[in-house]
């Protein structure tokens, strides 16, 4: 089974506000699929539905061939939300222990996974510190560590590198590549064009509609663009700085 995420004709309204309209897309195993779009385009709402946290108003979403939301599937998904769901009064390590125990990781395995995830995001030496003393970027990094603790088959990351410096951002991307080489399917939202270039597939979202999709190369070639930003503007995206 190559298709891991199948979104079919999905619309989402909040009251009378139409946030997403007739979105269809599929993500194959081990892809790094980037959802690119300006603030308010509907990226977060879409990934929350794929993660099973929100439900579509119309249409359906299947993850690993199972209709979402589905509790069992949620153990196979690592989700890093945009706002960090961390406990400020606990230390970084205690936060990771909490998430590890939710995922059923115990004893030596738990210790090993926490050490690995913390070193990946360069937080090893800060693990004893209380999280309310962390900077915004450190909290992002701790959230990312929490999302990968249980080695999920699918990793969904909502703007994972906001507030993270370029060097660490690159090391996080290197790790995402490694995870994908080992078969993890990654869905990542971003409004940063150079990050979009790093994805194997892209979906361009604007005003709740998927305006284009394909590999970065296909999107550039089919619009005779030098950059993804140019391709996005060609398809009707609005320019979004930073
Ligand atoms: N629970 C909610 N109730 C009402 N409106 C909502 C809710 N969640 C999101 N929206 C609206 O849906 C639209 C899309 O929001 P969403 O957060 O999905 O966009 P986004 O592309 O992720 O933007 P950003 O990059 O700023 O997070 C916005 O207009 C937002 O105000």
TrEMBL record:
Entry keyword set: ATP-binding, Nucleotide-binding
Residue ranges occupied by any ABC transporter domain in the UniProt entry: 5-232
Lineage top rank: taxon: Bacteria
Name of the protein in question: ABC transporter ATP-binding protein
GO molecular function (one): ATP binding
Lineage, highest ranks first: Bacteria, Bacillati, Bacillota, Bacilli, Bacillales
Gene3D superfamilies xref list: P-loop containing nucleotide triphosphate hydrolases (3.40.50.300)
